[in-house]
Amino acid sequence: MFIGSHAIAEGRLTRERLRSLGYRRLVQGVYADPALDVDHRLRACGVALLLPAGTAIGGHSAAAWHGAPFAGVHEAVTVVRPAEVEWKGPRQVRVHRTDLATTDVELVDHVPVTTALRTAWDVAALEPLGTAVAALDAMVRAGSVRLPQLEHLAERGTGRWGVAKVRRAFGLVDPRAESAPESRVRVALVLAGLAPVPQFHVQHHGEFLAKVDFAWPEAKLIVEYEGAHHFEAEQIVADDQRYAVLVAAGWRVIRLSAPDLRDLDSVVRRVRDALAGC
């Protein structure tokens, strides 16, 4: 990847060839080989070419380096900067002014990225609760940070900007979640007072039947989130067989998919109604 104006100034390209050769624009002024698969992390790498000294890729964008590559390709890239560095960045960048020590930043493949612990704090302080917890779950699951580290960070964060949001998010972290959608569903359920058992092993007469995303064992209720691969032909058949076994054993199953994430209040109502009717 390269900065277009630099390539033109050095004589490696003309403006006409930059347009005609089909280079992919990552952010304003930064281009990449069109053969590359563009995701949020690649766009963040492009932004890194523009960063002034003392700044870094941070927050939800930096989480991609620490086990949580969940930011969408079209989401603004998060950059953190100290007060003494004035930089606004191009349109596709979200710049957050904050205290930033040199120890908060590490260089990974020539990209300045906030450290895992600093990233965890900024994700919790800057992002919506469900988004933050999903990233934190993944970071803990990946081993980038540990739960005791988050607890210690929250304890000594008194007086820091965003500490209330951070403590709330940290308190909801559960690395048993196996995907970002699972984390978001769990957060909505917990906040509604309907805390499930994540990754529950269902047994019937001593025989293991299945591991399910969420369960309320006493009510024999299961909630499963089904990602895109669950809608492939062979998986549909396997899922139907699996759920038939669970239903035959006396369990009720609520199946969720991507559209349900747009209305988590409705998901909560479905679960509450199911629990009330047990």
Automatic annotation (TrEMBL):
| Database matches in SUPFAM superfamilies | Restriction endonuclease-like
Do you know which Pfam families this protein is assigned to?
Answer: DUF559
All copies of domain DUF559, residue ranges: 212-274
Q: Matching Gene3D superfamilies, A to Z?
A: VSR Endonuclease
- Give the superkingdom in one word: Bacteria
What name does UniProt use for this protein?
DUF559 domain-containing protein
What organism is recorded for this protein?
Modestobacter caceresii
